[in-house]
């Protein structure tokens, strides 16, 4: 295992990994690296699970969840945020410029506008068409590795050895109005401790929330388990707690302060990107099934 700067991110987001890696190589902070990395996917119209172009809820509204966590344990989060392309930037502002950790809905939106963010319609023609098609049957059944797919969670360790993380999503397609998933919840979609390492989650948010999975992974690493073992144990906890585990996907991804990386998921199909010294590698996660 090489020490030195490293970034990891969920799914096959190569550009995000490269952006974070480039920031780290230039001596940027882990916090800037994860912010810039996940912003690539927030702006990517082809990614229908994050930011602009995200699939809407069942009322046809795109609502975004995001959070960011700094090496000193500070964090910021937004949930149920509409019409703002880069929720991670708003989350960072919540962290740095308010006495709070989390702002939601109208309050988060008003805060963003007061801070100079410009409103933007995030529903693309393509997503609207898909939604109208869905309205005919209204069958709410997230498809493994498809509708649960493509939330970006990212962790980075910079040249000084500090770790930071971010997570951003539009959540599950055709979710109920007002639904918030795991992604903006510190401890569920993301958690880190600068003495130990960090973890991010993707997949069925409800199951991740019920098991506080990212926190669990970090606490297992604190007890001396490797990132790989920790992700496996945390996935097995989800499986133990829900006999219907074959019906949903959850994937966990972690890095410790030595730069060792691990990942585990329920169903095969989850991959992640590791960027070391500016070089991306896409890795297939091991799975329970
Ligand atoms: C959620 N965990 O809102 C997110 C969905 C996800 O890739 O990970 N999509 O439940």
Question: Helices, strands, pairings?
Answer:
Elements: E1 6-10, H1 14-25, H2 30-43, E2 63-69, E3 75-82, H3 87-97, E4 102-104, H4 105-114, H5 125-137, E5 152-157, E6 163-169, E7 190-193, E8 197-203, H6 205-211, H7 213-222, H8 227-241, E9 250-256, E10 261-265, E11 271-276, E12 279-284, E13 286-287
Parallel strand pairs: 3-4, 10-13
Antiparallel strand pairs: 1-5, 1-11, 2-3, 2-6, 5-6, 7-8, 8-9, 9-10, 11-12
Helix pairs in contact: 1-2, 2-3, 6-8, 7-8
The structure holds N-hydroxy-L-asparagine.
Fold and architecture overview:
This protein has 289 residues and is of the alpha+beta class. It is built from eight helices and 13 strands. The strands form two sheets. An eight-stranded mixed beta sheet has the order 4-3-2-6-5-1-11-12. α6 packs across α8 and α7 (213-222) crosses α8 (227-241). The longest helix is centred in the last third of the chain and has 15 residues, at 227-241. The model has no long low-confidence stretch (mean pLDDT 95). It binds N-hydroxy-L-asparagine.
């Amino acid at each position: 295992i090489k020490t030195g700067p490293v970034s990891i991110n969920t799914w096959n987001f190569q550009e995000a990994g490269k952006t974070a890696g480039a920031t780290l190589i230039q001596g940027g902070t882990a916090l800037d690296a994860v912010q810039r990395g996940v912003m690539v996917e927030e702006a990517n119209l082809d990614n229908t699970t994050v930011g602009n172009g995200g699939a809407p809820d069942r009322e046809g509204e795109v609502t975004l969840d995001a959070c960011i966590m700094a090496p000193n344990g500070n964090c910021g989060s937004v949930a149920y945020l509409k019409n703002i392309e880069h929720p991670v930037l708003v989350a960072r502002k919540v962290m740095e410029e308010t006495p709070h950790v989390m702002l939601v809905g109208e309050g988060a939106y008003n805060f963003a506008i007061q801070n100079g963010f410009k409103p933007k319609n995030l529903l693309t023609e393509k997503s609207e068409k898909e939604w109208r098609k869905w309205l005919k049957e209204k069958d709410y059944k997230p498809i493994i590795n498809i509708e649960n797919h493509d939330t970006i969670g990212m962790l980075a360790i910079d040249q000084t050895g500090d770790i930071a993380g971010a997570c951003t999503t539009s959540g599950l397609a055709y979710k109920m109005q007002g639904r918030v998933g795991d992604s903006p919840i510190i401890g569920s979609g993301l958690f880190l401790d600068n003495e130990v390492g960090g973890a991010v989650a993707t997949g069925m948010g409800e199951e991740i929330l019920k098991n506080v999975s990212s926190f669990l992974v970090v606490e297992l690493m604190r007890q001396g388990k490797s990132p790989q073992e920790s992700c496996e144990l945390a996935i097995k906890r989800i499986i133990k707690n829900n006999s219907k585990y074959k019906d949903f996907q959850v994937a966990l991804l972690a890095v410790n302060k030595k730069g060792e990386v691990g990942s585990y998921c329920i169903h095969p199909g989850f991959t992640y990107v590791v960027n070391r010294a500016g070089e991306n590698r896409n890795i297939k996660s091991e799975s329970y099934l």
